[in-house]
Amino acid sequence: MKNTLYLTGEARTNLDNAITKIYGTFYMAFEIEENGVIVNMDSNATLRLTRDFIRGIFIGKNIADEDLITDEILKRYNASSTKAIITAYKDALQRYKKLK
């Protein structure tokens, strides 16, 4: 898709988390329109269901809607990598703000 931006965010997960054991660090990648709307995203979560669930939280939202996205993660995602998802998202958000 033309006129989109690619951003990544990263975070550490718990030492006993499969993500840490396999990849060392948790990553999320975002494709966003110039106005901030997330059109696609992915992560290195180990299970497809997890990646799809996380994707469903983000796609269609504006990356700058920090409270809305963080609240939805906290309400809907209940696993050991919750904090890592929020941290990786905020890392990507900071990269977006630097571009603007």
Task: Note down, in words, how this protein is organized.
The chain has helices spanning 18-23, 48-58, 66-76, 82-99, and strands at residues 4-11, 26-33, 38-43. The protein is α+β, with helices and mostly antiparallel strands. It has one domain: Sufe protein. Chain: A, CATH 3.90.1010.10. A hairpin with a 4-residue loop joins β2 and β3 (38-43). α3 packs antiparallel against α4 (82-99).
Mean pLDDT: 89
CATH architecture heading? Alpha-Beta Complex
Q: Trace the largest sheet across and list its strands.
A: 1-2-3
Helices, by number, come to: 4
Strand proportion, as a percent range, falls in: 15-25%
Count of strand segments: 3
What is the number of independent domains? 1
Choose one word for the global shape: globular
CATH fold name = Sufe protein. Chain: A
Structural class: alpha+beta
Low-confidence runs of at least 5 consecutive residues: none
Q: Give the termini distance in whole angstroms.
A: 20 Å
- Secondary-structure element pattern, one letter each: EHEEHHH
Sum up the structure in keywords.
single chain, 100 residues, alpha+beta, Sufe protein. Chain: A, three-stranded antiparallel β-sheet, 3 strands, 46% helix
SSE map:
Blueprint: E1 4-11, H1 18-23, E2 26-33, E3 38-43, H2 48-58, H3 66-76, H4 82-99
Antiparallel strand pairs: 1-2, 2-3
Pfam families: DUF3870
InterPro entries: DUF3870
Domain DUF3870: 6-97
Short description:
InterPro entries: DUF3870. The protein has 100 residues and is of the alpha+beta class.
